[in-house]
Design a protein that fits this description.
The chain is mainly α. It has eleven helices and no strands. Helix 2 packs parallel to helix 9 (about 145-175) and helix 5 (about 65-95) runs antiparallel to helix 11. The longest helix is centred in the middle third of the chain and has 31 residues, at about 65-95. The chain is globular and about 55 Å long.
Length: about 210
Amino acid sequence: MENFYLFVLMCIFLIILPGPDTAIATKNTVAIGRIGGFKTVLGTCCALMIHTSAAVLGLSAIIVKSALLFSIFKFAGAVYLIYLGVRTLWSLRKKEEAATAEVITKTHPENASCFKQGFLTNILNPKVAVFFLTFLPQFVEPGSNTFIPFLMMGITYTVLTAVWFVLYVSLINQISAFMKKPKTQNIIEGITGAILIGFGIKLALEKAHN
């Protein structure tokens, strides 16, 4: 494996760039609290480990090279992101009509779905598979065995992702007094919903990589 420290530096810059994972973590932390954010992060990291395993075993290469498989994953991920975005925007309207008791009653099932949302948002994004198959090989010596290097880099990327999002969720939770004001929360959830729909549309319009 070559330039490990450069790899770590590049990962940090890539991880902190806002994306669907950040949007989901923000939404669940603001709406539910720190535990919701942490469950979302756990789901994201579990999905990243599956992407790592797929890259190590060569499955990601098959997805990237197959226009059909890429398209299936692409549209599945796009539909799910759009669904989450519409659901988030729709929840704003329901909040205006719902009583306080009803909102509290719905908190638990939403909390329980945070892991699933984080997991599916990441695992259904074929661009993550493309990333692993195009980014990781740049740090491996040509002709060398890629199993151990890919595994190490995948685990490193996942750990860095977990550390960043734990800090991010903790920060959001620390300023929860402001973030959880009804007006602020509605604005954040509205923006997040629009962002998720935007990411979903962008993903759907991505050309398949041959």
